[in-house]
Amino acid sequence: MKRAHKFIIILGLVSLFADMTYEGARGITGPFLFMLGASATMVGFASGFGELSGYIIRLFSGYLVDRTRNYWFMTFAGYIINLMVVPLLALAFNWQIAILLIILERIGKGFRTPARDVMLSYATSQVGHGWGFGIHEALDQIGAILGPLMVFLILYFKGGYRTGFGFLGVPAAFAILTLIIAYFLFPHPKNLEVENPKFMGSLGLVFWLYLGVACLIGAGYADFPLLGYHFKNVILFKDSMIPVLYALAMLVDALSALLFGRFFDYYGFKIMIVSVILSSLFAPLAFLGDALMAVIGVILWGVGMGAQESIMRAAIARIIPSKKRGSAYGLFNMLFGFSWFFGSLFMGVLYELSLVALAIFSVTMQLLAVPLLIKIQKSI
Asked: Is there a contact between 345 and 44 (Cβ–Cβ < 8 Å)?
């Protein structure tokens, strides 16, 4: 069990440095695209299509994971693409190039995610899937806090968006170095797996219901660049405060991942129902409220992200055997990505038509996942 914890923590440190890089960038991509002249619809498109591209490639890479078991090669390749393009945003002098780089960053993340999550699932089988993925997500989100704060300091001292993107190359290098260390310490992560005899033998009804849950949540969840765009558009916060708000969301993400992860190991999908109900309230607060209500909305947005990145991943490890887990993660992520893309694009359009309609759409889609979660809970 000590080796399993060690592996989870080392991969968590990789994610910490990686998140410093791309989450530091993510906190300012909305205002940066605004500065370059992009419309709200194009911001929604960039966020949604970037996620879509990353999630589509997860289906392909997840299948390759199950066929080749070449976890480390795919993890390394994805991280290199994922991280190296972020400093290049400093050289983007029109919104089209910036959007292309944003999409490429998401593709790199998508390519390596199934392989990394399968490796994590092996180790979390010893410590509890919810708790293990919660630990990883908490470390991940420490980086997601430090990155935006680093960018905040650069903006505060008048460094500008481009300077911020350039400095994010430093944690990117540390992420790759830590990944190399992880490879040499754990060249065969499959050896950490403790098989669960209760696994289903195929991708059965519970898994397909769970995919429906993922699609509904993805469709109703606005990406932060649209929130950042809104805050700048209505002058609700100063430019330098927007990455601070993102850092706040990431702090909430980290804490809620640990809390929900631990409870998931004991209460199963009941705790996911609670997280969906709480996070569904973020849109009306963030898009329709004053500054204080917007901060509360950002906090609830962070609660939802913490659940998505911990217990939603842990649930796959709980219901799918290891030999099919890569494909399951790939299919899950691809459908989630399709939903995220069309939902983000639609909310970008709704933003220019009616903020009330945007909020209603977001809340409705997320709450429709609750009946499916209730059925899943009763089926297992």
From this structure: yes
Question: Residue 55: which domain range?
Answer: 2-379
Report whether 213 contacts 372 (CB < 8 A).
yes
Rounded to the nearest 10 degrees, what angle do helices 369-379 and 205-220 cross at?
160
Q: What CATH number is associated with residue 339?
A: 1.20.1250.20
Number of domains in the chain: 1
Length of the chain: 380
- Rg of the Cα atoms in the chain: 19
In Å, what is the CA distance from 4 to each residue of 122, 307, 335, 361? 8, 22, 30, 41
- C-alpha 246: how far from chain center: 13
Q: What is the token pair recorded at 146? A: 């430090």
**Closest by CA position to 317, among listed 329, 305, 308, 307:** 329
| CA proximity to 113, closest of 32, 197, 55 | 55
Encoded amino acid at 156, one letter: Y
- CA 277 – CA 290 distance, rounded (Å): 22
Report d(CA 188, CA 168) in Å as an integer.
Answer: 31
Between the alpha carbon of residue 206 and those of residues 202, 203, 212, 318, 319, the distances in Å are 10, 8, 10, 11, 8
CA–CA dist 241, 246 (Å, integer)? 9
Q: Which tens digit of pLDDT belongs to each residue from 182-238?
A: 999 998 888 887 765 454 445 578 888 999 999 999 899 888 878 888 888 887 887
- Res. 5: pLDDT tops 80: yes
Q: How far apart are CA 369 and CA 359, in angstroms?
A: 16
Taking the C-alpha atoms of residue 113 and residue 65, their distance in angstroms, rounded to an integer, is: 10
Q: How many CB atoms lie within 10 A of CB 65?
A: 25
Q: Report the pLDDT value the prediction gives residue 200, as an integer from 0 to 100.
A: 46
Query: One-letter amino acid identity for 113?
Result: T
Residue 193 DSSP code: -
